[in-house]
């Protein structure tokens, strides 16, 4: 009976009067914030996001609830607009939001493919071996992994960076779970801070750059505030690191496969191409990234031909001994984080739908109109520790409050580093709770939240002092 009642109530909600009309871009826009469909859409999104937050407990991939929620929300919106003869308005709004996602999708897909290719060529495995074989003390390893996470995440994404560094600390701290716990906290903070001053370091900075709000070079104004955000809590945690030397690894060596360093160079060229396309040619940066995928595909062809010449069994059944070092770009594309990519789609379309309904305008008027830009942007950072920073930042971009560059930089900083306040506040933290299960937990991170909050406040103060 519940589905029948729900459908009946939903159909009845379509008959409710629309509270107000507005006009934008030559099309009538309905204000559905007081309409039954608006309430349903808000309820569906909250329920879907609750399932996302409980992903680890439910073992339900985070993309599933938001994909379904996005379809339901836009279907309800379309039904209301169709009843008013405004089908074109809905279609145009939907296409606008979908194009926003499509550019983000292809940008991330290419970046993930390159990261996957570098993993396949053992680039990160070689870095891992180098770190654990140098005989660093626990305190030295704490700082080394944090600094590397800070400087790798602006190029690679903060999630991949955190996972790589976590593998290192789990290796050296196999018998010291207390070291693994505190080092993971440091890695999460460092990776998020490093991603905040680069357009490529975090999804939030990428969205701001692709939107054209801040120029490529403008993000580097956040470098010093980002350093402070990382160093302040790390300096406090330093005195709680175990003393002594970890045991050396059992592996004899770890070498990068042929072409690994070339792929690193091609990745840097791809980033440069994306920047040039965006800054000079005024084309979407995703076009530059896809051009860079062509670099990798041609180099992949070279690797395959080289392998074919060296191993007569190249065309044999996959998995044979001669197939081991073959390279296939499509295999690397297949290894992309598809659940994450579809999660971004669901979130962007859900938030876009709520914005089209009118809820984000109300939120913008209250948060930015009543509190002012500075306090609002600080709150955005705190909210991103509870709710993922992607929907929060996309909501801010959809609101598009009238702010100077210093305030856009502030919200970019806070949304990027605010997620470090809690382990569930960023993809890096959630991933490390799974990878270092039992050592790094929600409460082991929460123990250091006051120190992280001090770094958060110090980075905001530094930004306002330097860039304000």
UniProtKB/TrEMBL annotation:
Pfam families noted in UniProt: CitMHS
- GO function terms (MF aspect): antiporter activity
The leader peptide range reads 1-24
Tell me the keywords, alphabetical order: Antiport, Ion transport, Membrane, Signal, Sodium, Sodium transport, Transmembrane, Transmembrane helix, Transport
Locate the transmembrane regions by residue number.
36-54, 66-84, 104-120, 141-173, 179-201, 222-241, 261-278, 285-303, 342-362, 374-396, 408-434, 446-466
Heme keyword on record = no
Q: Name one GO cellular component term.
A: membrane
Places the protein is found:
Membrane
Name the InterPro entries for this protein.
Answer: Cit_transptr-like_dom (IPR004680), NhaD-like (IPR045016)
Which GO biological process categories is it annotated with? sodium ion transport
User: What start-end ranges are recorded for coiled-coil regions in this protein?
Assistant: none
Name all Citrate transporter-like domain ranges. Answer: 50-416
To which protein family does this belong? Belongs to the NhaD Na(+)/H(+) (TC 2.A.62) antiporter family.
The topology of this chain with respect to the membrane is: Multi-pass membrane protein
Q: What is this protein called?
A: Sodium:proton antiporter
Upper lineage is:
Bacteria, Pseudomonadati, Pseudomonadota, Gammaproteobacteria, Methylococcales
Predominant place of localization: membrane
């Amino acid at each position: 009976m519940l589905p029948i009642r729900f459908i009946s109530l939903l159909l009845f909600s379509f008959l409710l009067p629309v509270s107000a009309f507005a006009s934008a871009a030559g099309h009538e826009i309905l204000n559905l914030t007081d309409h039954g469909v608006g309430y349903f859409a808000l309820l569906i999104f909250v329920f879907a996001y609750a399932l996302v937050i409980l992903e680890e407990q439910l073992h339900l991939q985070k993309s599933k609830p938001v994909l379904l929620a996005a379809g339901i929300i836009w279907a309800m919106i379309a039904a209301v607009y169709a009843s008013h003869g405004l089908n074109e308005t809905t279609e145009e709004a939907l296409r606008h939001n979908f194009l926003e996602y499509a550019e983000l999708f292809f940008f991330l897909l290419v970046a993930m493919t390159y990261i996957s290719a570098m993993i396949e060529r053992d680039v990160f495995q070689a870095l891992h071996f180098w770190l654990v074989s140098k005989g660093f003390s626990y305190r030295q390893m704490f700082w080394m992994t944090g600094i590397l996470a800070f400087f790798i995440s602006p190029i690679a994404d903060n999630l991949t960076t955190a996972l790589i560094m976590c593998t290192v600390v789990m290796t050296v701290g196999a018998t010291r779970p207390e070291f693994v716990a505190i080092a993971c906290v440091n890695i999460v903070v460092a990776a998020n801070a490093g991603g905040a001053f680069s357009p490529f370091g975090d999804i939030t900075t990428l969205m701001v750059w692709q939107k054209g709000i801040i120029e490529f070079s403008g993000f580097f104004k956040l470098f010093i505030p980002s350093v402070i955000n990382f160093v302040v809590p790390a300096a406090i945690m330093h005195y709680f690191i175990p003393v002594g030397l970890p045991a050396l690894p059992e592996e004899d060596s770890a070498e990068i496969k042929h072409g690994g360093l070339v792929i690193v160079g091609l990745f840097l060229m791809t980033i440069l191409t994306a920047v040039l396309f965006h800054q000079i040619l005024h084309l979407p940066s995703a076009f530059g990234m896809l051009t860079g995928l062509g670099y990798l595909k041609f180099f992949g062809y070279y690797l395959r031909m080289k392998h074919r010449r060296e191993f007569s069994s190249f065309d044999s059944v996959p998995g044979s001994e001669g197939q081991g070092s073959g390279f296939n770009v499509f295999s690397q594309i297949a290894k992309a984080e598809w659940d994450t990519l579809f999660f971004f789609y669901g979130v962007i379309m859900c938030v876009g739908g709520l914005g089209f309904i009118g809820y984000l305008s109300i939120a913008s008027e209250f948060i930015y109109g009543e509190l002012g830009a500075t306090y609002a942007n600080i709150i955005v950072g705190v909210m991103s520790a509870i709710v993922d920073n992607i929907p929060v930042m996309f909501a801010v971009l959809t609101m598009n409050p009238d702010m100077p560059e210093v305030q856009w930089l502030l919200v970019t900083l806070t949304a990027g580093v605010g997620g470090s306040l809690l382990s569930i506040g960023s993809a890096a933290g959630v991933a490390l709770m799974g990878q270092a299960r039992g050592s790094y937990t929600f409460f082991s991170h929460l123990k250091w939240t006051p120190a992280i909050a001090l770094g958060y406040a110090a980075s905001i103060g530094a930004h306002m002092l330097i860039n304000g």
